[in-house]
Design a protein that fits this description.
The protein is of the alpha+beta class. The chain folds into 2 domains: 69 residues, 434 Repressor (Amino-terminal Domain) (Orthogonal Bundle), CATH 1.10.260; 166 residues, no CATH class. 45% of the residues lie in helices and 13% in strands. The chain has 13 helices and 6 strands. The protein has a 4-stranded mixed beta sheet with strand order 3-2-1-6, with helices on one face. Strands 4-5 form a two-stranded antiparallel ribbon. The protein is elongated.
Length: 290
Amino acid sequence: MVSNFGANIKQLRINRNVTQAVLAKAVGVSVQAVSKWECGGTPDVELLPAIADFFDTTIDSLFGRACAEERNMEKQIINLLKRTPNRDKMMKACELCWALFKGVSNIPNVEETELAKVSSENGAYFDEKEACTRALVGINGGLAYACALQEMPSFIFMREPDDGFSYLLKEETQYQKLFSALSDPIFFRTLLFLYKREPVPFSLEHICKVQSLSLEKAASILNSMQALGWIEKETVELESGVKALYRPVINACFIPFLFCAKEMLHTVKLWYLRCVPRTNPWLENKSNQD
């Protein structure tokens, strides 16, 4: 335990870019005392709280032991969010995600870096290119991406599978069908219409009327959406006979999809935080390697 303490103190000090003199002054001891600790000695018990506070950690962690709070971190986070009012839950979750992001980055002295707060008022989404609102971590093992627009802070964390991100390309033809459909302005406009209304069934005639479409075009679009699993066709029996209706299948990934598409159109010229020590190609197919 003595050896661990000295090594831990030294590592904490180096990570914070702090000299022995600064640490000594902060806890009220001599530089020689700090040097002695790092060489295998231990401080008086009453100094331990001051040392832990200086490094913003726990006494247990100074000795290399996981404290109860760290062992129950998941429960701590859950309880924190439970206590947070509903209107503030997502913002609190974003603050926690920013802490995760900084931890994943492994950048020295990043602990005190706050999440940037830049407004996108007046349609400035593409105008604040130099405002340092994006952050990126790319390592051999995954990626993390952050957007710090004040109205919509967003985070993406992706652990890389054992066989690489190329697993995403296993259904390449499906991507072609998807992007081919979305490239049709009328199809895309109709899709947006479905997300702007309550998810209740509608008729072919209704779509024709509100979207100013011919029966043939509307039927073609709805058939494509049904093939993609975005609507379900059902029937209802009326006095006039059996009527076909369409029920939207709201996909929660559509909003993140729009976000990612917009981010791809955004040119980042100055990163707020960037750490990309990754050496592997992003779409490396590891399963094909010898």
